[in-house]
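Data availability (excerpt). The following record was deposited with the supplementary files.
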Amino acid sequence: MTMRAAVRQQLDPTVRSNETRDFAGALRAKIVGQEEGVQALVDLYQVFCAGLNSPGRPVGNLLFLGPTGSGKTRIVEAAAEILFNDPHAVIKVDCAEFQHSHEIAKLIGSPPGYLGHRETHPLITQEALAQFHTEKLKLSLLLFDEIEKASDALWQLLLGILDKATLTLGDNRRVDLSQTMIFLTSNLGGGEISEMMGGGYGFIKAEDKPKAKLNEKVERTAVEAARRKFSPEFMNRLDKIVVFHPLQRKELEEVLEIELGQVQRRVLETAKGQFLFRVTASGREFLLQEGTDQRYGARHLKRAIERHVVYPLANLLATEQVQLGDLVCIDWDKRRNQLSFAREGENIALPPRKIESPALVRTAQARSGKAVETPAAILPLEPAPRLAR
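Predicted structure:
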């Protein structure tokens, strides 16, 4: 009897599904300069979509370390916005509110017999985890923010949640977290990292420091700070520790583009103030100078945009100095040492209120079985030729 030789077909395990590629692309469009964090979240999402996540454990336990304003919380909100069309589709536990043991009742509810038992509603319930589930995607996102501020009682709860994916509420109901991604954020080591990036208090400037292996030093500083604070049994329950690096000049320029695009969308979504604006190169340079601070990261840039762009635009809108279809140019005025606002065009054809990404539309429709509205794409900040005067 002759036996045919088995045909071997080479496989490529690096290829991702279309849905996961769409998710990764949308996440990178919203998160700047934190590729390791994006990759960790995309890996978990691919495992969940394939149905290969470990039974009896959360989908993933990720610890995000790094200085404030580097995007640790934002990446979770961005994932929720992409998957569920709502950045608030996350159960967020602010650990600063649980610094004392008795405050754990706000999280799991008071046991029967305690005063206020019926009035204390637990934050983490099966219904809360499932409220954003769709027919195609039954995934929950749970965020513990600033975990280093939590009390010992919350730490004990976390050890069980991270290991067994179960939580027992005050009334003895059990919550299953096996379809939940759990994120923990911490600013531990952030001060040392900012000093390392900014040059400290001496005469050494940041540009004088060798750039080689700087990222490794940042990661080592953050992880060592976490190991000093957290117990070995806690660290052993984490699937991955991701260090978010301080944003550099080029990355802040990308954040500026995204934030100005979001302001443009806010303008277009107002009832009577649908107009376009553009910011010149010198205007953007001013915003970057005002909004760049190693200690506060992208948050400082957002505050600069609100103060120097949003507030003046609000005044122009409230006093009806701009009308429907106007084009406003925001430039840097050297003589007055401030931004100037001038109308460049009138009765311009406005873009639709929502500019949708075809990839995101396909993903959302496949998930829900019907057409849904997806987050708007970033509007061009410089006017296209058809918008010129």
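Summary of structural features: The first strand starts at residue 60 and ends at 65.
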